[in-house]
Write a sequence for this structure.
């Protein structure tokens, strides 16, 4: 079987697909690629089903060697050294692909024609870091099997998509289920603040730093279900924007939700970048 | 009274949160949504007072799902009709005596009450396969003042109105009554989770030896 050998991983590289929808009632979260649009694009460019598994690379640093000619592409954060970004290119047998740090954005998706074919766990090849499910975090020496192609090659040379934005990113926010647990001043602050992305951010969520949001109700919230995009406000008043590996249920009030399509752009935010939430 | 007492709260562009009066109503609505799934609904997540519905925007709209959930008739009297699971327990937990003091009885009586109760999995969360079990008895036990950094897999525990079984080792603040050798979450089994919403549970005392 064709395979890619991992030579280096950078800060964090994991296998991701479309995750595990439909199992949340059993405490199993969806997980999957943080930037779903970039993940789908990567698969389309090499002629895979959109939910085939790719490698999600966090802040570059991944290096792989192909043991046979393989069609590959990278999408999302554009890394130095990727000659196949937003464009499918054949990586010849024995050749290496080495990703440097990205100029903007955080997460890069490496797709290979045929998909990464590690054994699925509960129907998905995604690594869920919060739940501890799925393939292990990648490490040097790991051999990633490549599956058989399921569709014809797409015959696309290049996808004209913009790179993730540097600087301030603005996304749309809708009132959440517990908007009424906060005074109007808190909603005004939420949508007026230039939130700083914390270095504590990860696949569970983007932690935002700014003036703490006040609550008007100090009741205890019985845990309730949530999905990605939720802006949960813990007692610190500093919101957490949930990404792919968020807990299935949470016990802090959700003041608002970033619209689903905009969550992909939030998955590309790096520590120190500014986020504006437009109401 | 379909839809009469429910509140539907917004949860972003792909989900709705239905708020209900109590856990019985949650169980009833969840049972209805499992027996007659709504088209385009990807996930239905029961919790203590709410049911979250996640939709596939390519298949339906939030408006259509909201209208459909308001037309849904919650099942009544659902407690006591799910599959029955027997969980063998060694009642040798570190907090058995403390729980007895909290409930005003001796440890043997705690075991008697815990095994006499018919529990029902109300909802899951915290970690894959962790079920929140409720019973009819007066269980109201606070969490430990200081959570343990490691609770072993298989620990049978109490907190608030709930009982639970830790699917794997994790930090935890629940009061430990004992342990079971039954793997309540096992990836080599289908389904992996034994404690799914609606499942009835009987704990069976199998002695205190490890």
């Amino acid at each position: 079987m064709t395979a890619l050998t991992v030579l280096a991983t950078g800060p964090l590289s994991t296998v991701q697909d479309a995750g595990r929808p439909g199992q949340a009632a059993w405490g199993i979260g969806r997980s999957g690629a943080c930037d779903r649009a970039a993940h789908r694009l990567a698969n389309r460019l090499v002629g895979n089903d959109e939910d085939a598994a790719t490698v999600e690379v966090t802040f570059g640093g991944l290096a792989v060697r192909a043991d046979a000619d393989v069609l590959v592409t990278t999408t999302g954060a554009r890394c130095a050294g990727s000659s196949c970004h937003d464009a499918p290119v054949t990586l010849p047998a024995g050749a290496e692909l080495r990703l440097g740090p990205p100029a903007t954005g955080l997460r890069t998706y490496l797709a290979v024609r045929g998909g990464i074919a590690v054994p699925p766990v509960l129907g998905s090849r995604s690594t869920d870091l919060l739940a501890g499910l799925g393939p292990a975090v990648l490490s040097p020496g790991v051999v990633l099997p490549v599956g058989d192609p399921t569709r014809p090659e797409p015959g696309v040379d290049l996808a004209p998509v913009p790179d993730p934005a540097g600087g301030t990113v603005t996304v749309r926010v809708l009132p959440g289920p517990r908007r009424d647990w906060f005074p109007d001043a808190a909603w005004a602050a939420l949508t007026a603040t230039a939130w700083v992305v914390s270095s504590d951010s990860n696949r569970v969520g983007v932690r935002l730093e700014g003036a703490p949001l006040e609550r008007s109700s100090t009741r205890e919230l019985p845990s309730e279900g949530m999905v990605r995009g939720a802006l949960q406000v813990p007692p610190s008043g500093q919101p957490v924007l949930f990404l792919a590996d968020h807990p299935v249920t949470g016990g802090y009030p959700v003041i608002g939700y970033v619209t689903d399509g905009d969550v992909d752009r939030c998955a590309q935010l790096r520590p120190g970048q500014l986020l504006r939430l437009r109401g | 009274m379909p839809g009469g007492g429910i509140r539907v709260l917004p949860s972003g562009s792909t989900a709705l949160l239905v708020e209900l009066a109590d856990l019985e109503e949650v169980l009833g609505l969840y049972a209805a949504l499992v027996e007659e799934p709504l088209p385009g609904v990807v996930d239905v997540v029961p919790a203590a007072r709410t049911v979250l519905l996640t939709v596939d925007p390519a298949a339906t709209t939030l408006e259509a799902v909201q209208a459909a959930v308001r037309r849904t008739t919650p099942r009544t009297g659902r407690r006591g009709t799910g599959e029955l699971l027997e969980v063998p327990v060694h009642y040798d937990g570190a907090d058995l005596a403390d729980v007895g003091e909290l409930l005003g009885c001796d440890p043997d009586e705690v075991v008697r009450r815990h095994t006499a109760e018919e529990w029902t999995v109300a909802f899951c969360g915290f970690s894959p396969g962790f079920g929140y079990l409720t019973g009819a008895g007066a269980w109201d036990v606070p969490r430990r003042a200081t959570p343990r950094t490691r609770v072993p897999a298989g620990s049978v525990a109490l907190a608030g109105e709930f009982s639970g079984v830790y699917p794997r080792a994790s930090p935890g603040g629940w009061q430990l009554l004992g342990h079971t050798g039954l793997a309540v979450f096992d990836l080599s089994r289908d389904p992996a989770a034994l404690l799914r919403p609606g499942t009835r549970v009987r704990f069976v005392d199998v002695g205190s030896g490890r």
